Amino acid sequence: MTAEQPSTDKQFHRTKQWELALGQLYKDFQDCSAQAVHQFKAKDIHQARVNSRKLLTLLSILDPGHVSGLYPVFKKAQKRLGKVRDADVLIDSFQSRRKQAKIDGDPKTAKLLKSVMKYKKHQRKKYRQKLQDELPKLTGKKLETKWNHFIGEQLGAFVANKDANVVMRELEVAYEQKKKICKALFREQEAATEEAFDSLHQLRIAAKELRYTASAASFALHSKFHAHEEIYKEIQDQLGLINDKRVWLETLHAIGPKELDVGTKTWNAFMDTLRAEVLEALQQNDVIHIAAKP
């Protein structure tokens, strides 16, 4: 009995660490979600999304088979929050661009940007309505029941069978493999190919997984991993800038100049500007070296 006591105490301590970390994230997620559907403030939307992302990160460590049934619920919530958040980011960015276009004495571009914002605000209204309809259901009594069962009945066994340090190392290996593939594609192909961009997008996701694992599971990780949150946040930010500009290009392509009621010349000029910004962001990133094209 005495020989087993230290091991039992250690396991109990580990489980309590996980319980406390998960409990705080769950509370923050619920609080921010309630605020998010109340006034749709960008800060509340963002924080609810971040907390859902962290919960998904910890659940992917403990319960990769989704036995608890919690992962799909938080994933749906994150998706709905993400739709609104992405629209918020684009609208804010294009609002700043519109102000600058006015300062630069470019009323045609300012008009184009206003039309894009109007279009996206209309979309965001639909996204907000879906969020308001669905998020309270996702975060309601059914989730509370699943959560209490997970914490009270399943968590100890999950913690006993999983090591966050092993998961972190696996994520590092996956990131390096994706980086190698990405480098090869950008060496062999034109920087603007869809395959190369898709590879860069996958690398960004791998960096995000490392960042959020280092953050959400810091209490369970060796000290050698403690700097990973900042390291991979910087990487994610650089690759995210490229991805954002690419998404903006795709968004405008999907809308088209007719829908926005703008002239071809103004449209082409702005699209050329966005393409140039994508290329500049690619060449300035220090994650994947992109040689300037002759």
UniProtKB/TrEMBL annotation:
Organism domain of life: Bacteria
Gene3D superfamilies: CHAD domain (1.40.20.10)
Pfam families, per database record: CHAD
Domain annotation CHAD: ranges: 11-294
Name recorded for this polypeptide: CHAD domain-containing protein
Organism annotation: Paenibacillus albidus
